[in-house]
Amino acid sequence: MTYQDVHLHKRDEAFEEVEIKGLKVSLVAAGDGGEVIRHQLGAGSAWAIGPSEGWTSMEFVYVVSGELHWTVDGQAFAAKPGDSLSAVAISRDTVFTCPVDTEFLYFSTQPVFHHYSVQLRELMQLAVSIEQKDGYTADHCNRIKDLSMRIGQEMGLTSSQLYNLNIASFLHDVGKIRVPLPILNKPSTLSAAEWDVMKRHTSFGRQMLEETNLPMLTTAAQIVEQHHERRNGSGYPFGLAGDDIRLEAAIVAVADSFDAMTTDRPYQKARSAGDAKREIREKRGILYHPDVVDAFLSLADRAEI
Ligand SMILES: [Fe+2]
User: Could you check whether the bond before residue 215 is cis, i.e. omega within 30 degrees of 0?
Assistant: First the structure.
C-alpha cells in the first residue's frame, strides 16, 4: 500500500537488484544521497566495507536473520538478528563472514549501490565470457573459485584472506579480455612476441580491478596479477619467487594448473586427475608453494577433488 509520501516496499520489491553467486543485493530505498540496501548472503560467504577517497559517510547495518561475524585486532564479534552496527567515515577495511544464510539491511548516507554491485557483476560477467573465448566452458571460473576456496579453508586462511581469494580466483583471467582474439584463440604455438602479449593478461586484470576504484578489490587485484608467478621465480609477469608471491595467488596457481591439465579444450586433450595430481606433487616447492600442495593433496587423499 502506498499513500501520500510514504512508500511501502513489499519484501520482493526493489528499485534494482543484483545477484552474484552467494550474494543478492537489492536497493530498497534511495533519496537525498542516502541508500538502503538489503543484502542476502549464503552460508559461508563474505562481505566487506572499507574507506575510499573522500568517504565520510555514516554506515549502519541491521541484522534481520542469520549472523554476521568479524574481527578487529584479533577480537571476534558477532551480530545476531535485532543487533545493529554503525561506523562514521570508516578508516579500515572490515570483512564480515556469514556462517549461516544471513540477511541484513545496510544504510549509507552516501550512494554506493552502483559503485559496488554493478561493477563487480560486470567484471564477473566479463570473466565468464572470456573463459568461453579461451576454449573453456562457462563453469571454469566457478571451478577455480571452488577449488581455491577449499584449499584456502584447508590451510586455515583468515576471513580477510578468504574474501580476497574468493574474488581473485573467480576473476583471475579477466584481463584476457584485453588480449587480441587472434592471439587468444591461436590454435598453434604462439610466437615470442605473441606470448609476451598473452602474459600481460595478468597485469591487465590487476588494472581492470583497480579501475573500479573499489577499495575491496585492491588486494584481489594483486592476487590476480600474481596468479602465474611460480615458486622458483620462473613465472610471470615479474618472476617473483618464494614468499614474495602472495599466498592467495599461490593457491590460485595450483587450482588453475590442475583445472587446465584436467579440462578438454579445443587444442588439448584432458589428462587424468591422477596424472595431474602426480605432476603437482612433483613440482611441490619448485613451481608451487609446498603448503598449498600439501593442502591440495590432503583434499585429494580424502577424495574431495
Ligand atoms: Fe591466467
Answer: no
